[in-house]
Structure formats: structure tokens, C-alpha cells
Amino acid sequence: MVMDRWQDWLAAHVSRTPVSTAETASVPRLDPKPRVVLFDVYGTLLAARHGDLEAQGRSRLAEESFVETARFFGFSEESGRAWAKAFFQAVADEQERCRSLGIQRAEVLVERIWEELLQSVPDPPNPLPDPMDAAFYRELQANPVAPFEGAAEALAALRREGYLVGVASNAQFYTVPILEYALGGEGRFFPEAEAIGRADETGVLGTDVGAVFHPQWIFFSFQLGFAKPDPHFFRLVATRARRCGWRPEEVLLVGNDPVNDMEAARLHGIQAVLFTPSSTASSLRASWSGPQVHRFDALVQALIGR
């Protein structure tokens, strides 16, 4: 079964051991006090080797993940190397096509690309792997993750205090079970479910995506068709706030990227706090003049006062 297979892969490749953050951290000043707190995933809730597909495409190590995936599913190493080139070319082609339509940063559906990659190989194994299996397995090879210290506890604390907690991330379908598993849940939420937000509220900290994150405040790029820092992304967030009768600045984004997160959110009036888990990340701090935080407990203190 798909669920059992993915569970095994998650257990083998995703660490639940928290990654340490800075030993001390100042408490950022937030004004106005937000109603909604949105979190980026890669580099914020989860420490990641590379992050999203854009970051992976810049890494020479990405090819090895395709070769390993080819071996695992019974294809040749040559097929894996060909897949690596074809995959990132397909991403670039789709983004270029969408730029002509006014979408600055289009998001792809990786399972659709994998469907074409698997069918492109002469004399492939029979039966062909499921494209979602191949995409999921490749991601686990390319981008090992682990939760940052205090991330799961911060999500739980904010929910207890009545904040609407959400997510705003460049992501693919596999981000959802990976995030759930890393934060202590079962990683059981799969994209064939009717809608994100309908998972049962189970797990140690209620770490099914639909239990932790409010369904109206889940913004995954693979569901939207565009990714940060495309202006459509945070325009959608700001519009959601206004439809609730709130100002955009009553939404707070916590992210690790000064451009994709901080500047992109601020352009639409959304508050933003830069998460720099290492106190030595001087280049990030220098490029962002707004609020910063090194630890999740300092963020919680800023929001709930303890």
C-alpha cells in the first residue's frame, strides 16, 4: 500500500531529532499584534539540505538523487542522469512559458513531470513506478530534513493561545507528509484526500497538517500554481485577510529568506519576521532591516508574553 510504503521511507530518511538554534535570542517587537501567524517550511520549520526545487536545481549534488532513484526502481544510472537534466529543464520551460502570461514565478507539479520522465525510458521496468512514488523517493534522497528546535512546541503554543496558525511555503505534494512526520505526527496525510484541513486531529501535538494549520491559511505553491516571491502569492494572503475584515498587517509571516519571504510579504503590507537560527548568519541579517528572531521560544514570547 502507498501509505505503508511512504511511512517506511519517511522513517528511513526523515529525522525527528531537532536541529539546535542559537543559544540566546532577543524578542522581536510586533506591531500590531497579529491575528494570523504563517510559517515558511524549508529553512524555517524544517532544516533542509537544499530547500525548494529552485535551490535544488542550483546544486550539483541533485543529479545523484535522480541516479539513486533510478537504481531503486530498477532503471539504469544513465536513465537517472538523463532524468536530472530533463527534470530541471521541464521546470525552466514551464516557468518561462508562464512568464509570458505574467506569472513571475510559476510552480510546477512534479508528479506530472515524473510521469513523462518514466515513460521516456526505452524498455522500462514493468510495471512502471507510480510517478508520485518516484517524486517522493527522489525528494527524500535530495533534501534530508529535520525539525528546528522548538518548532513543534511553538505551533502548539500559538494554537492554544487562539492564534490562527498557517503555512506559506514553496512546496510540492510530498512536503505535507514530510512536514507532518518531522514534527512528530504520522505523516499520513496524502494528496488524494479531499482537501487539506480534513485530517483527523491526532498525533502528539496534533501534527496532521489539517489539525495544526487552519485550512483557510494554508498556502502551498503546488496548490496555487505560483510560488514565492511571485507577487500573486502574498496578494492572495493579503486578500484573504481583507475578506476576513482584517488589515494585511494583522498577518505575520515567519520565514528565512529576505527576498522570497520578507520583502515579498512586506510589499503587500504583511508583517514579517526573519528566522535566522544561527546567530552567525550575518549575510541574512544585513540584507533585512526588519524584525528578526533566532529561536522559536523568543517568537512565542513576543506573541503571548511568556
Characteristic key phrases:
Rossmann fold; 10% strand; alpha/beta; 306 residues; two-stranded antiparallel sheet; 6-stranded parallel β-sheet; globular; 14 helices
Structure description:
The protein is an alpha/beta fold. The chain folds into 2 domains: 2-49 and 144-304, HAD superfamily/HAD-like (Rossmann fold, 3-Layer(aba) Sandwich), CATH 3.40.50.1000; 54-142, no CATH class. It is 44% helix and 10% strand. The protein is built from 14 helices and 8 strands. A 6-stranded parallel β-sheet has the order 5-4-1-6-7-8. Strands 2-3 form a two-stranded antiparallel ribbon. Keywords: Hydrolase. This is HAD family hydrolase.
Secondary structure: elements and pairs:
Layout: H1 2-13, E1 36-39, E2 46-48, H2 53-57, H3 62-72, H4 77-99, H5 110-119, H6 131-142, E3 145-147, H7 151-160, E4 164-169, H8 175-182, H9 209-212, E5 218-220, H10 221-224, H11 231-243, E6 251-255, H12 258-266, E7 271-275, H13 282-286, E8 292-293, H14 296-304
Parallel strand pairs: 1-4, 1-6, 4-5, 6-7, 7-8
Antiparallel strand pairs: 2-3
Helix pairs in contact: 1-6, 3-4, 3-6, 5-6, 7-14
Can you give me a brief rundown of this structure?
This protein has 306 residues and is an alpha/beta fold. It is 44% helix and 10% strand. The chain has 14 helices and 8 strands.
CATH architectural arrangement of the largest domain? 3-Layer(aba) Sandwich
Give the termini separation.
Answer: 45 Å
Q: Report the CATH C-level class of the largest domain.
A: Alpha Beta
> In terms of structural class, how would the helical and strand content be classed?
alpha/beta
Structure annotation, total helices: 14
Question: Based on DSSP secondary structure assignment, what is the total number of beta strands?
Answer: 8
Outline the biggest β-sheet.
6 strands, parallel
CATH T-level fold name of the largest domain:
Rossmann fold
Order of helices and strands: HEEHHHHHEHEHHEHHEHEHEH
GO molecular function: hydrolase activity
Protein name: HAD family hydrolase
Keywords: Hydrolase
